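ok so dumb question maybe but i'm new to this and my supervisor (M.) told me to 'just get the structure for DNA-binding protein' and walked off. so i did the thing. is this what she meant?? sequence i used:
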Amino acid sequence: MTALGEFLAKRSVNKSMVARRTGLSKARINELSLNTSSHLRAEELYLIAKAIDAEPCEVLNKLYGHLQLVSEEE
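this is what came out, is it supposed to look like this??
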């Protein structure tokens, strides 16, 4: 399961409802939720956030907040 899949599961989100509201296919929602090699596009993240009544920045931080910049050595 992907980070998006875990996020949606914790919020008890119905993926069929998300597909209907966003215009994304059920297959695409499932791929983004289950396939760790799938890549979430910014427009998909935005639409999914709006469909589940969440702020896009909240979803972005939940999914990618763990990322850090590479430190530069001087």
